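Lab notes, practical 5.
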Amino acid sequence: MKRLAQLIVTAAGLAAGTSAMGQTYFAVVESGSDKVVLLSTADGSVVNPLWIDLVPQGASTPIEALVVGNEVWVSDQLADAIFIYTLSDLPQYVTTIRGGMDNIRGMEHVNGKVYVTNAGSGNGATANSIVRIDVATRAIDAVYPSGDFFDLISYGGNLLCSNIGLDDIEIRDLTGGLVQTLVNSDGVSGIDFPQQMIVLPDGKIAVSSFSPPDGLYIYNSNGSQHAYYDTTAGGLRGVGLLDNGSFIITNGSGIHTFDPATGGEALVVNGQGRFVTKVSIPIGCAADFDGDGFVDFFDFDAYAQCFEGGTCPPGKTADFDDDGFVDFFDFDAFVAAFEEGC
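Output from the prediction step:
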């Protein structure tokens, strides 16, 4: 019986660790509870409801969780700060970048630099600018006066920026200079208050619109409008494309899925949804079921509770071999891995 218990404990620990730590997910910021949740990229279902807890760091209105090398940088609009965590199954707090920023929103990582949208003039910041932070030193090394941007993303060697002051989508160079106004909107018949943007696999651009006519806009690469979806979830803030062709959309009532083919929508997470970011979590030591960096009897206990129908560590399941069943095949596979060590 004791051996059986050990098999149960060890086997599923490896299973859960492998499936949870070696896949790609959507990291979605929920600013109502100041947290980052993990969603499946397949269907938008919740994988980890509390991947990063931002409360201990004093978060106020987090906007985007951006992968920067082996870290996750989280911008906070009202805290005027960027909180940094390790990129892992159980992220650990690293440090906070403050000063020289005010009312920040979206960010992008390009060639060792993080470009941050900055709207305010507090804390010594320059209003309506792009702040550039050197990743290695974590220090601001340039400020480019430009526009009132809510998001910016890498785009053909430049930056694609959503300008909420003009309701336009602009292409800017890496020093903030205007290259082209891709979408020139009047904010009445066209997009108003554009927030997060993503480039789709076919080169089109999806943009979330916060103010009426709010909804999801799809643009061709030449800036012409390809499609507009007046989603039931209004006041859109974030957008991400699921593997099945549907979208993750976020607003002030939560995180939703949206199927453009049928118009169907479903609430996934209640709260204040913000930006949607794809993250790939590195594979760690799969036998470390509780994710504390050690393989010991605490992992055994954590798995036993999980296997018997109790609480599992965030993002973990008892299905080690990922075949949809929890059985002795899972036990044996984990035992082999556990005895091999990490």
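Observations recorded by the TA: The longest helix spans residues 2-21. The longest strand covers residues 46-53.
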